[in-house]
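Deadline looming. Please check this record:
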Amino acid sequence: MSSPVDSMFSELNQRYQKKLRVSAVDVDIFANCVTRVEQLEELQHLVYQLRRSKETVNTLESTHHAFCRVFLKFRQTDRLLHILSDRIGFGIFADLFSYNMLLDHLIDEKNWRAAARVAALMMAQEDCGNGISQRLALYSVHKYLREENRSEWFESEELERLAKEDELYPNACTDRAVITTDDNDEEVQYIRVPYLRNKWFDDHFDIRDANHLCGKTLYFFSKQFDDIVGRSQQIIGLILYEKWDKCLKLLTSFQKLKQNVVKDVVKTVDESIEKLTDESTHKQILLDIKKVLDVMDNDSQIVDKDLDELVSQKLSEIKELEIKDTEIMPQIFKEWEKDRELALNKQMEDLLKEERRKQLDDKKSEMQEKHRIMYFFENFAKHEMDFVAAEQKIAELKSKTVVDEDYIPPEIR
């Protein structure tokens, strides 16, 4: 038996196929009404189509949350991660609460690779979230780096897709909607133009190296903690990110301020030095970092504490932070309901306005036809002149037609 949600998808999909307008609020309602895992494919399709229409600029905030929540509900985390990674293609940007739920779910499943990738997405959006997000993200990346048989950051299919994009579009990416305005038209117009990719490496969205992504993410979130965990993870993150100068400068400031770091920092530096060859240009600065660590060790600034245990203790602080989130969530849901209601009212007003405009146009056409019939004989002379002009035009067109006298039509058998 067909459900109202199935009927809604069929109607919206037909409108997309006919190049008709589908509003962002319609997609939002569908996202909030999904009740079966089979409907996830339909939701993904609608979001994909919405991203390619001018309505994408009106996407409601509740759409992003509902999309993430329903995929998480049916444990489709791999598909969700793929969609979140393709921001240009699908335009889904998880909100703070969605990120928290997703990270919590992946940590429970001990899926460290996926959890670390979610943290990297937050870093790419330059959104450090709240205290819960920061602790979950920091813990996720830390556990992924500590994994013995660490799984690959990108899956083989993803690597192939990225390689193909880099090969086919060295200086261009997916089309992007750009706003243009017409002085004679009140409505804002949208056109699609090539979305140009930077000709240089931006050291942010273009990062493909797993260690660099983990390092930058670790550094980004650990800056939020002014303690031994934050300081230690900042240094480890910068080493993985291979920002040696920045690492040396930061570590020197810790040394001067008599601030402690854990012994794992020394271990990470030693491992990095071992990997470098004698000809490496970075070896000297790593040795300078090592010297600063030796000075800190002599001043008892290197603490022999288990970093894994210290980071795990950060998760225990989440219980106190959850109270504020649970108080804010109902308020945000009410705001989203108001936004949806306003969008629906505006859509209804636009539909009524369009219907009235159509009625006026039909009435105008009808009156013009009646006027033409009523004053036909009064305008008879004009009609005769139009008729003569039309005959002359037809004769002129016929005279320009080239006829091949030797043309022999084909035989029909």
In short: The chain is about 65% helix and 5% strand. The CA atoms of residues 73 and 317 lie 26 Å apart. Residues 168-185 have pLDDT under 50 and may be disordered. The first strand starts at residue 172 and ends at 180.
